[in-house]
Amino acid sequence: MKRKTVLVFILLMFLLISTACGNEQSSGNNHSEKGGERKIKIGHLAPENNVWHQSLLKFDEELKSRSNGRLSLDIYPNATLGNEADMFQQVQAGSLDMMIVTAAEMANYSDSFSAWFMPFILKDHEDSYKMAATDEALGLFDNINGVEGLGYYFAGMRHVLTKGNPITDIDDFKGASIRVTPSPAIVDFWEKVGAGPTPVPLPELYSAFQTNVVNVIDIDLDATIGNAYYEVGDQLTTMNHMVWASGVVINEALWADFSEEEQKIIKEALQVSIGFNKENNIEREESNLKAFKEQGGKVTELSNIKPFMKVAEEIHKKYGGQDDSIQTFIEKAKEIAE
C-alpha cells in the first residue's frame, strides 16, 4: 500500500512540474490570450543609433498609445538574435515574431525582391516611399512563405565611398574592388560598370576597407557615419543609384492570430513609424553629409551620368525580362520618378 502511495505521489509531482514547465515555455513568447497584453518580439541587425532602431521605438510608442498598453514591442538590435538569415528563418518558424529584413536577404527566397536593386529608377527618398506604398512593392511579399509583409523601412540612398582619389566618372571604376551586398542584380550592375564587386560582411568591412581588400564601398550615409567608415575613406561620390529597402515582416500564423482590431492597430502604428522613418532619413541625409565634411571628407558629384544610365537600362531589361513582378515594379517606379 505504501508503495502505491509513493508511486501516486511521484506521478502527481511529475504532472505538476510538467505543467509548470509548459506554462513557463508558453509565456516565453511574450504572448497572452486574445484581448490581453501582447508583447511582440522583433529583431534587426543595426545598432541602436541607426534609423531602423529609432523607427522601431516610434512604432512601439504608437502601438502602446493606440492599444492602451495592450500591444508593445520587445526590440533586439545589433544582431542579438543571430545574423539576418538566422532571424528570418526564426520568423518563418515562429520562434521570433517579427524582424526588419533587407531586400537582399529576401531576394534569397524570392528573385522578385531584386526589383529593389534596379539601379537609377528611384531618384530620392520621396520616390522611394511612394514606391514602397504601391501594390507592386507590397505584392513582392506574397512570394515568400511563412511571413506577412507589413511595409518597408529605408536606410538612405546609396553612394560610393573611397579614399585618396574621388570617383568622378564611370572610367574611375575600372578595376576597382568595390564592396557590395552579394545580390545578383547588384553584382551584375557593378561588373557592367567595370568594377570588381566583392562581397564583405558588414562586421568585417572596416578592416577590409582599411587593408585594401576593397578600395571602394557601395554604402549609405547613415552606415558611413554610424560605422565610422569616414575614418578610412575621405572621398564620397553622391550617386543616388539605389535605395536600401528593408521589409518589416511578421510570422504569418501569429499575424492570423491577432484580431482584426489588433491588426488594424499594428498597421496604423507601423504607418506612423514609416512616416517617422522617412523624415528621419531625409534629416539624416543632410546631417550625415555635414558630419562627413566636418570629419575632413570631400564630396563629389558625377560629371557624366549617361554611361551609368546606359548600364542601368541593360540591367532593367535583363531582370525585367526574367520576372514579371520586377518588370511591373520597374514600370511603376519610372512612372513615380517622372
Automatic annotation (TrEMBL):
Top-level taxon of the source organism: Bacteria
Signal peptide: 1-22
GO MF: carbohydrate binding
One Gene Ontology CC term in the entry: outer membrane-bounded periplasmic space
GO BP: transmembrane transport
Family matches, as InterPro entries: DctP_fam, TRAP_DctP, TRAP_DctP_sf
Pfam families documented for this protein: DctP
Assigned keywords, A-Z: Signal
Name the UniProt record assigns to this protein: TRAP transporter substrate-binding protein
Species of origin: Niallia endozanthoxylica
